[in-house]
Amino acid sequence: MIDIKSMTLEELKTDMAELSEKPFRAKQLHEWMHKKLAESFDEMTNISAALKEKCRQRYSYTNLKCIRQQESKIDGTKKFLFELSDGNVVESVWMKYKHGNSVCISSQVGCRMGCAFCASTLDGLARNLAPSEMLDQIYAITRLTGERVSNVVVMGTGEPLDNFDNLLIFIRLLTDEEGLHISQRNLTVSTCGLVPKIRELAEKKLQITLALSLHATTDEKRRKLMPIANKYSIRELMEACSYYFDQTGRRITFEYSLVGGVNDTDEDAGELIELVKPLNCHVNLIPVNPIKERNFVQSEGSAIQAFKNKLEKNGINVTIRREMGRDIDGACGQLRRRHIERSLQ
Ligand code: SAH
Fold first, then answer.
1. Which end of the chain is less crowded, N or C, counting CB atoms within 10 A of the terminal residue's CB?
2. Is residue 332 within 6 Å of ligand 1 at its C-beta?
3. Is 91 one of the catalytic residues?
């Protein structure tokens, strides 16, 4: 079976020819899937019963089942737990900001990157998500909230650049005029730093924002937090980021999760400044969200502020990430993990 929601309009046109159908049928199907966000072929009122039947024979139609929804009483953030057709679950987050609604999606079921502070990676990688399954998270949330999504961040469970080909198809479909038509500039992809893939992405010359999870200023410290640092040095990473900027003109976002007593000293701030200064970038400080499986603690509020001030004084563009949905298992992968734990009990 072909996953119809992961096909581009061009591919669908070619495939319609194989079914001896006119090309405009492809456009109609595409519109039902990616604009009207239909949940099945049954909803497609201008498609004949005969063609619907042909489609059911030939294509699979992905759909997510929302099995849990939590809403933050603090800021209205919503977390969704979705079940995929094979029974796996993924989580996505909906955040309301003044400038529009943002959705944070997962790119894989689980993750194999092994970052020490992250809940998503505790059980390893189950599988990649198809482009359709990444889109479905946005489509399902649009239907459930009844509100338009304007920004998408690929910062949920998974390493997007470890699912590179599917990520590119997803971006193409999401930003397509024939779909939700979300601007590339309103899309952020976050990576732990797969250097060759950052370079490959740069060469696509997309206008998306690349966020790089740095979290430490020396290779030695980074290796303790992120196994990927054994593979690529910070120097190679910085060169790849600079290449990304040269190719795309897009400013890099560096993510730096502050962990109490690990990477939050004045010296760390100084080293971070030296590292990122030569680049056209933005630094996003994330107070670490402690997970019960590991004993990392959040930095003191005063340490966070001092860290930020030092960066600012040195002309670095810096923000502290607002902690959205703190009361609803905000940290990556926590909701899914709770669900898996419960089902094992
Ligand atoms: N694999 C991608 C995207 C996943 S997570 C990446 O590594 O960038 C998005 C961001 O949240 C990353 O910067 C990640 O390191 C960070 N993160 C994960 N768990 C966290 C936690 N418990 N507290 C703070 N930041 C966390």
1. C
2. yes
3. yes
332 catalytic? Reply is yes
Q: Tell me, in angstroms, the distance from the centre of ligand 1 to residue 177's CA.
A: 31
Distance 292 CA to ligand 1 centre (A): 16
Q: Distance from the CA of 17 to the center of ligand 1, in angstroms?
A: 44
- Ligand 1 atom nearest the C-alpha of 118 is 19
What confidence score (pLDDT) does residue 333 get? 67
Atom 7 of ligand 1: nearest residue by CA position:
192
Q: What is the mean pLDDT of residues 58-62?
A: 98
Name the more confident of 343 and 332: 343
Q: In sequence order, what are the residues at sequence separation of 6 or more whose Cβ sits closer than 8 angstroms to the Cβ of residue 297?
A: 259, 260, 261, 288, 290
Residue 76: which region, alpha, beta or left (left: phi > 0; alpha: psi -120 to 50)? left
Which of 21, 55, 91, 111 is catalytic? The answer is: 91
As a whole number, mean pLDDT of residues 319-343 equals 72
Token code pair at residue 45: 């009122």
The rounded percent of the chain whose pLDDT value lies above 70 is: 96
- What CA–CA distance (Å, rounded) separates 289 from 286? 8
Calculate what percentage of the chain has a pLDDT beyond 90: 88
Confidence of residue 212 (pLDDT cuts 50, 70, 90): very high
> How would you write 77-140 as a 3-class SS string?
CEEEEEECCCCCEEEEEEEEECCEEEEECCCEEECCCCCCCCHHHCCCEEEECCHHHHHHHHHH
> Which residue among 91, 128, 187, 213 is best mutated to probe the pocket of ligand 1, counting the most ligand atoms within 8 A of its Cβ?
213
Nearest CA to ligand 1 atom 4: 155
The pLDDT value given to residue 330: 57
List the beta bridge partners of residue 191.
212
Question: What structural domains and CATH numbers belong to the chain?
Answer: 2-60 (1.10.150.530), 67-344 (3.20.20.70)
